[in-house]
Each structure stands twice: as structure tokens, then as C-alpha cells.
Amino acid sequence: MGDRDAKNALYREFAAVGKALGNPGRLELLDLLAQGPRSVEELAEVAELGMSSCSAHLQTLREAGLVETRRAGKRVYYSLTDVDVAGLLDTLRGVAQRHRPHTEPARRAYLGPDDTEAVDTDELLRRVRDGDSVVLDVRPEPEYAAGHLPGALHIPLDQLTDRLAELPRDREVVAYCRGQYCVLAHDAVRVLSAHGVPARRASHGMLEWRLAGHPVERDLSPG
């Protein structure tokens, strides 16, 4: 029979990860870092957190072994320690979706009315391969640079209305963003449809695409 103190010590290690996940702000930071490395300043701005609060959350995640840091000049950049952390986030959200009854109403309240048609991953893979759709990435520039679907056109959502002329009109647009709980692609399809551009959204996004091992391109341009 195993030693009780040793067993308790083992379970405390597991619990440390669970405790780090037990905060909505920290889960959002993990969601952002699943897209690619970001500085503390960028994370605080996107997650709408104060710098001190953001730094404290990141320190908790680091102590739990979920994120790591690198320094570039005066800035500190955070990233997930491994892809399995993104998988943990995806599993956690899936469990909540399946077993917590308030999750689905909360999802619908955030993503808005069910007024956008989705393209599943198999069809999107075919479209990426065949080039018969305009695959549109509507995430912020740092996330696109860190990794995007092969051949994807990049127009951040907040620039989309002003850059409609860049979209070919002879093919349907398929917009994608961070993942299935990201509102950006939903909003992009609403904008495009309002301007007469045929558009659908990807049913999943960059998080699920990476976890499935699908090909990813990166922006290797200087700076």
C-alpha cells in the first residue's frame, strides 16, 4: 500500500494545475497564448486587464507549469509550455459544454444569434487544397503572424469594412478566427453578408486546427 503523504503530495501537484485553471481571466490568457506568443502588454490590452492583474495571472500560470517566458529587449513574451496545454484548454471547454447546462446559453449570448452558416473542417481542408474559396483570417496581426492556415488572406475584423475591395468577388469567403468559441469569424460573416459578399465561417479555428495537426504557415518576414 502506497504512502499517504506521498500520495497527497502527488495530488497536490495535480491540484496546482486545476487551481491555475480556476479563473476566467487566466483561461482567456491561455486561449490567447494558444494562438502564439504575446507580450504582457499585448495580453493585458486584448484581455482588457490591468497590467498588475495580468502579470499576476501569468505568474500563477507559470508557477503551474502552463506557460513559459522569454525576454526580447525590454519586453517579456509568454507562450504555452507545450501544445498539450492547448489540448487541456480544449478538453476543459468541451467538458463544460457537455456537462454544465448553463454553458450553451452563455455561448449563444456571447457569439450572438445563430445567423451564420458554418463550413466543417473536412470541407475547409478541401477548399484550402483546391483554392476554390477565399480563406480569410480575421484575427489580429500578431496571431496571424504566429501561425495561419496555408494561403489565408489576412484582414483583421476591425479593418474589414474598409478593405472589402481586397476580396475577390468570384469565390465564396470562408472566415476563421481563434476557435469555436471565438466571435470574430461570426462578426466577419455578418459584415460581409451585409455588404453582399457571399461568406460562411469555419466551424473551428486556429486552436482546433493546430491540435488536429493540420498544416500551418508562419509569417517569416523581418520584424
From TrEMBL:
UniProt-listed Pfam families: HTH_5, Rhodanese
Domain HTH arsR-type: 6-100
Residue span(s) of domain Rhodanese: 129-218
InterPro entries: ArsR-like_HTH (IPR011991), HTH_ArsR_DNA-bd_dom (IPR001845), Metal_resp_trans_reg (IPR051011), Rhodanese-like_dom (IPR001763), Rhodanese-like_dom_sf (IPR036873), Thiosulphate_STrfase_CS (IPR001307), WH-like_DNA-bd_sf (IPR036388), WH_DNA-bd_sf (IPR036390)
CDD domains for this protein: HTH_ARSR, RHOD
Highest taxon of source: Bacteria
Keyword entries, A-Z: DNA-binding, Transcription, Transcription regulation
Gene3D superfamilies attached to this UniProt entry: Rhodanese-like domain, Winged helix-like DNA-binding domain superfamily/Winged helix DNA-binding domain
PANTHER family: ARSENICAL RESISTANCE OPERON REPRESSOR ARSR-RELATED, HTH-TYPE TRANSCRIPTIONAL REGULATOR KMTR
NCBIfam families: HTH_metalloreg
UniProt protein name: Metalloregulator ArsR/SmtB family transcription factor
Phylogenetic lineage: Bacteria, Bacillati, Actinomycetota, Actinomycetes, Propionibacteriales
